[in-house]
Amino acid sequence: MTEFIGYPIWWGGAAWLANHFVTDRDFISKKVILFAASSSSPLGSSGSDLATMIGTGDWQEGQRLSSNASAGEVLSWVESLDL
Ligand SMILES: Cc1cc2nc3c(=O)[nH]c(=O)nc-3n(C[C@H](O)[C@H](O)[C@H](O)COP(=O)(O)O)c2cc1C
Fold first, then answer.
1. Ligand 1 centroid – CA 74 distance (Å)
2. What's the rounded Cα separation, in Å, for the pair 26 and 44?
3. Which residue stretches of the chain are H helix?
4. Residue (of 38, 30, 76, 71) closest to 54 by Cα position
5. What is the CA(10)–ligand 1 centre distance, in A?
6. Which of 2, 14, 43, 56 is a plausible cystine mate for 64, CB 3.0–4.6 Å?
């Protein structure tokens, strides 16, 4: 099973809301695809920080999207994943 986890970047990292969301979930045997929106900051270590905190799941390298990304940009990224 594949799960998408999205969050806004706050202060250069994943918004604390994302920490709460992932902590309550089980990622055993799941592929996790991250995406984050930000005004300008890169994804940085936000995804690997979440993966390390959880310790289960096959966490893929994430994608940073602009906070004003269009539906078309998001769709084109999802299609590029070749799922
Ligand atoms: C508390 C707070 C901290 C933020 N910190 C960053 C940041 O460090 N870098 C950045 O590029 N954007 C930052 N942002 C912008 C958010 O990433 C942006 O609001 C989010 O991607 C959602 O976009 P929207 O506000 O246009 O809906 C911050 C926003 C908030 C509310």
1. 18
2. 24
3. 16-23, 46-54, 71-80
4. 30
5. 5
6. 43
Q: Which domains does the chain have, with CATH numbers?
A: 2-80 (3.40.50.360)
Name the one residue in this structure whose structure tokens are 């070749």: 82
Ligand 1 atom closest to Cα of residue 37: 21
Read off the pLDDT of residues 58-83 as tens digits, 9 standing for 90 and up.
Answer: 999 999 999 999 999 999 999 999 88
36 CA closest ligand 1 atom index: 21
**Residue 22 has which token pair?**
């992932």
Token pair of 26 as six digits? 């089980």
Q: Give yes or no for a contact between 51 and 79, defined as CB atoms under 8 angstroms apart.
A: no
| 77 Cα–ligand 1 center, Å | 20
